[in-house]
Write a sequence for this structure.
């Protein structure tokens, strides 16, 4: 069970992902790093599961009201030329259901700089939410509407996070599925391994981002 934060301590970072393999990759990237306090939360698949899990975590006391939230894991790239292992840093997330406003990610500059400094291919733009796996014509349609990538949990995660209190939010996803590298094709196992390795490598960058958010307070 996660420990409750120490009163008056800096708000711990909450990193949310959907799948066990994503959590395994992220926690593996945590080894040996000089860290800020963090909680890694597995929400389960889909927007509803993400909403429930995040609301429960923010209400349980394992993180504080001001804890920054990062939605992370794998995603499907929508733009031609994307490859497995590319990194998506959202400028905003958009829910798949109409009527919900976009959630802006205003503090992502340090994330982008740190990821590029590690030699990763980083794309920034709109990250679209969905409640199912996107393929073919639907992928192209979402891209034509301005989305750079799509996943099932990030939009719901960040919307719930800001609904539960004022905080910094970010979404950092690793492309595992792209227009020229769909998961249904032979040879995509190698792409999945590449994405796993990249996801594992980005976790220390979240701590750097967390520390950058705390600097003005000191």
């Amino acid at each position: 069970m996660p420990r409750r934060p120490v009163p008056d301590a800096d708000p711990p970072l909450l990193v949310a992902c959907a799948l066990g393999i994503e959590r395994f990759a992220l926690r593996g990237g945590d080894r040996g790093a000089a860290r800020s306090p963090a909680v890694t939360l597995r929400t389960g698949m889909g927007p509803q599961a993400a909403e429930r899990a995040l609301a429960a975590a923010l209400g349980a006391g394992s993180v504080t009201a001001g804890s920054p939230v990062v939605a992370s894991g794998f995603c499907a790239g929508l733009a031609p030329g994307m490859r497995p292992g590319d990194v998506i840093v959202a400028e905003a997330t958009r829910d798949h259901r109409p009527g919900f406003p976009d959630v802006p990610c205003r503090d992502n500059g340090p994330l982008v700089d740190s990821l590029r400094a590690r030699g990763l291919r980083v794309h920034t733009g709109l990250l679209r939410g969905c409640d199912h796996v996107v393929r073919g014509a639907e992928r192209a349609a979402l891209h034509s509407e301005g989305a750079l990538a799509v996943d099932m949990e990030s939009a719901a995660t960040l919307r719930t996070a800001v609904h539960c209190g004022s905080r910094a939010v970010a979404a950092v996803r690793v492309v595992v599925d792209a227009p020229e590298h769909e998961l249904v094709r032979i040879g995509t196992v190698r792409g999945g391994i590449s994405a796993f390795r990249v996801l594992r490598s980005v976790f220390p960058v979240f701590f750097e981002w967390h520390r950058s958010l705390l600097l003005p307070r000191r």
